[in-house]
Amino acid sequence: MKNVCEWLHVNKLTLNIKKSKFVIFLPPPRSLNYDIKLKVIDNSTNISSSLECKEYVKYLGVLIDNHLSWKYHVDYIAVKISKIVGVISRLRHFVPFCTLRNIYQSLILPYLTYGLTALGLAANAHLNELLSLQNVHYVSCIF
User: Fold this and answer.
1) In 3-state terms, the chain is what percent helix, strand and coil (to 5)?
2) Each residue of 19-60: pLDDT tens digit?
3) Which domain holds residue 74?
4) Would you give the DSSP letter of residue 109?
5) Same domain for 126 and 89?
6) Distance CA 100, CA 92 (A)
7) Which H or E element spans position 47?
């Protein structure tokens, strides 16, 4: 942390403690049995603050968890997509198929394609939920 603070100071940057979190990555069966405290000390004011340890953090719109299973990210995407699928299923009786396809491509497809490399590493159990949501959308548009 001392090196990070020095780098921030040299580059005239500050660390927002309220927005900063940290994750300790572990293999899936393991978990932390003890509490880790990271303190950041501001040299100019000599005030120390603790960083919060989390199970997952959001980085550039992708939720990264401590086991790199991508479970939280897939769940987050599934919630977003399921709301949109509900809207599309209600609209299917009132608008043509090409309009539904455009809605899908503009509202659902970006969630599936952003961070696709990370999703490719997710467990099949997590990805099946997204696949079923996408199939529900496709079936509801056809019938």
Assistant:
1) 50, 15, 35
2) 888 888 888 777 777 777 777 666 556 566 777 888 899 988
3) 62-142
4) H
5) yes
6) 7
7) strand 47-53
